[in-house]
Design a protein that fits this description.
membrane, alpha/beta, 9 helices, 50% helix, transmembrane, 7 strands, Rossmann fold, two-stranded antiparallel sheet, Rossmann-like_a/b/a_fold, transmembrane helix
């Protein structure tokens, strides 16, 4: 019963509500033999496909499966890319927290540090006026976990993946690092690797923060429109990769 209620709610609450309304309008226009019925119907189908989880899975899987985490990553520095942070929010030992994507990246970075004891470069600045400085928050949290301050280098000027690569290159040159292990979300890694390569940096990719399970299962919930779907995240990465190449 709970699944039936969720299925119904999916079409009565945004964004599914928009699909429902447009579908009803399409039917009305079709019955009135309006020339706009086909166009509106096509827009409705496109909107529906963009909102259902299954579409996001199909788009994200190629990105997330592009690289596999190496069992024994080799390098001389861990490089973690920022992924969002809040400003002034309460946190243990300070203010400001990393977003879900960035927090997952930080956890993986910490676990890799425990295995390798390599120095860490945290790359990420203040993206928006109401967001926190990602690298500074990450450093505070890593230190709280026991990572020595002298093992953490912060790069606080980057606000895009492109500037992550450019500014990290400057830090690496200053500290004479040559073989970075690049840590970021699995869906983000193909674009990040491409941009680092354009800066002449060969990285060892280390994916984390997976959005989708490795195997997709078909069930009614996969066809119900949902907010926060991964389709738009994947499309952003594909567009970014295309733009980076040209």
């Amino acid at each position: 019963m709970a699944y039936i209620i969720k299925f119904i709610y999916g079409f009565l609450l945004p964004p599914g509500l928009f699909v429902t309304v447009l579908a009803l309008l399409s039917v009305i226009l079709f019955r009135k033999k309006s020339k706009w019925a086909i166009l509106l119907g096509a827009v409705t189908c496109l909107m529906y496909l963009s909102f259902i989880p299954l579409t996001g899975i199909l788009l994200v899987h190629p990105l997330e499966n592009h690289y596999q985490p190496p069992e024994k990553p080799k390098g001389d520095v861990l490089v973690m890319l920022g992924g969002g942070a809040t400003l002034g929010t309460p946190d243990l030992g300070g203010k400001g927290q990393l977003s879900g994507n960035a927090a997952n990246r930080l956890l993986t970075t910490f676990r890799l540090y425990q295995k390798t004891h390599l120095p860490i470069i945290l790359s990420g600045g203040k993206v928006y006026p109401d967001s926190g400085v990602e690298a500074e928050i990450g450093k505070r949290q890593l230190m709280a976990l026991g990572v020595p301050a002298n093992k953490i280098i912060t790069e606080t000027k980057s606000i895009t993946t492109k500037t992550n690569a450019q500014n990290t290159k400057k830090v690496m040159e200053a500290y004479r690092f040559k073989r970075p292990i690049l840590i970021t979300s699995a869906f983000h890694l193909p674009r990040a690797v491409l941009l680092f390569q354009k800066e002449g940096i060969r990285v060892t990719p280390y994916p984390t923060d997976y959005l989708e399970s490795r195997r997709a299962a078909l069930y009614p919930g996969q066809f119900v429109p949902a907010s926060g779907g991964t389709a738009f995240t994947a499309l952003k990465e594909y567009v970014g990769m295309f733009a980076s190449r040209f």
